[in-house]
Amino acid sequence: MQQSTTDIRIVPLPQGQDVLTEILRDGARRMLAEAIEAEVAAWVDTHAHLRDAAGRRQVVRNGHLPERTIQTGIGEIPVQQPRVQDRRPAEQREKFTPAVLPPYLRRTKSLDELIPWLYLKGLSTGDFSEALQAILGPDAPNLSATTITRLKAAWEQEHEAWSQRSLAGKHYVYVWADGVHFNIRLEEGRQCILVLMGATADGKKELIAIADGYRESEQSWKELLLDCKARGLSIEPSLAIGDGALGFWKAMRQVWDTTKEQRCWVHKTANVLDKLPKGSQPKAKRMLHDIYQAEGRKEAEKAFDLFVKTYEAKYPQAVECLVKDRGVLLTFYDFPAEHWRHIRTTNPIESVFSTVRLRHAKTKGSGSRAACLTMVYKLMESASKGWRALNGSKLVPEVIAGVVFIDGVKQEKPAA
Question: What phi and psi, each to the nearest 5 degrees, are found at residue 94?
């Protein structure tokens, strides 16, 4: 059997050096260099027909640009980009930029995403240097607390631009509205962040608006809804889901007069149980679940009446809290059963805010209102990448078309 003549040499590294990481870095450097060289060769070849009067090529290779380093998840990688010279007149010249190596790139996208992720998950600005050295090694420059400060300023601009984007042509069949309060360390009072989320015509969830409000007041919600309308959101949603905060519902009726209302059962359950003694709460909670988990409206009404009869004598405040919203608590029965789990509560927003609250608790509050608003925006933007579509998304167009659903079941048109 013929013996292999391949010569494999192990280059000794300084003690404590990670051999595997060095191999990966070297491999990444070689692959990047080869990819850029291939792009340059292809670019020059596509311009080979461009020649001057003497027959000389107008687009040619011309050495290399100065070497620079790119910070990646496996450390720094040195790169040297070939230089391309275009000898044509200035008005005809084309600038070559490799797709794999944009100009002025200093960090890979995955690393740029790591920095805000660490910050938003609760790492304080002062701890970044130590944390990043543990992840990227001791030779990781340009990732100091100053970098985070610059990033936060960029995030504020990003949120400002996002808040002014056009909503023309958007159609949200369902919208969820909620507000969450935060303490601000360096300013007096508490801040209320208003959030509006929607489900599009193809069943995907989207973040519509995030704004700094005043106590979930009617005026604050009205300003947010009118702003959305001014930016092109002209089609009214079929259903709005929110808690019992009167500010949103008063504002909504002034802006969207045809949108139906659905009160959040999670908020309602918590409010009702708060008016009952702890010993009675487990049973009452089961009875409330029996209402909104019933197969149809008739069964839900029956369970509703049973709860009222059970507690109206001893705990009238709890019963009053439930009964006052009876009609808008059962609106979801007029929509597809596949959508019920999404539209009975404001959980699509609440689940995201749990991450926001966790980060807020770790850092003991944001330093300013602008920083808090930006933090909420970036966290929700990050979370939105993992949002899944509604169950029964194919039924959304039928809801938009005005198809009648009774107890979650589509009603067929009677025969002619």
Answer: -120, 140
**C-alpha distance from residue 371 to each of 25, 30, 153, 367 (Å):** 37, 42, 9, 7
Q: Is pTM, for the whole model, over 0.90?
A: no
Residue for token digits 């029956």?
302
Max Cα–Cα distance, the chain, nearest Å:
104
Residue of 257, 231, 105, 101 whose CA lies nearest to 164:
231
Here the tokens at position 134 are 């543990």
Question: Are 194 and 185 a contacting pair, CB within 8 Å?
Answer: no
User: From the CB of residue 242, how many other CB atoms can be counted at a distance below 10 Å?
Assistant: 25
Helical packing angle, 347-362 and 369-384, nearest 10°: 130
DSSP state of 390: P
Question: Which tokens belong to 145?
Answer: 């607390």
- Pairing between β-strand 205-213 and β-strand 190-200 as defined by DSSP bridges: antiparallel
Q: Which residue has the tokens 């660490």?
A: 118
Torsion of CA 318, 246, 224, 154, to 10 degrees: -40
Determine the Cα–Cα distance for residues 303 and 299; give it in Å rounded to an integer.
6
pLDDT along the chain (416 residues), means of 10: 45 52 62 72 84 86 76 64 82 74 52 55 58 54 58 81 92 92 66 90 92 84 94 94 89 94 94 94 96 95 96 95 95 96 88 67 63 80 82 93 92 64
User: CB-based contacts of 282: which residues, under 8 Å, 6+ apart?
Assistant: none
Going from N- to C-terminal start, the domains of the chain cover 19-92, 109-161, 165-400
Q: How far is CA 18 from CA 13, 23, 131, 136, 161, in A?
A: 8, 9, 18, 12, 43
- Which amino acid is located at 353 in the chain? F
Residue 368 contacts residue 212 (beta carbons within 8 Å): no
Instruction: Tell me, rounded to whole angstroms, the distance of Cα 104 from its chain centroid.
Output: 27
pLDDT of residue 2: 47
- Rounded Cα distance between 110 and 119, Å, is 15
Pairing outcome for strands 405-406 and 59-64: unpaired
The count of residues in the chain is 416
- Residue (of 221, 238, 253) closest to 390 by Cα position: 238
Element (H, E) at 28: helix 19-46
In the structure encoding, which two tokens stand for residue 161, read together? 């631009």
Question: Which amino acid, 398?
Answer: E
